Amino acid sequence: xxxxxxxxxxxxxxxxxxxxxxxxxxxxxxxxxxxxxxxxxxxxxxxxxxxxxxxxxxxxxxxxxxxxxxxxxxxxxxxxxxxx
Length: 84
Prior knowledge:
about 80% helix
């Protein structure tokens, strides 16, 4: 897996919940990674079983994207804090 994808996963897990960071993640980073994951998934389906490391990369990236989307969604409690 490319280094920038691994960096995304690390940064996402260490998120500070800064509003600018969340905005960038939701508008730029996550959509780009979703396209990358779709490309990986397409390659995996084309060469089924021949490159198990690609399938693992696709699964890891899809899981990280899902986790990132959940982390970047403001929770009702967080919205109350930012509204003050």
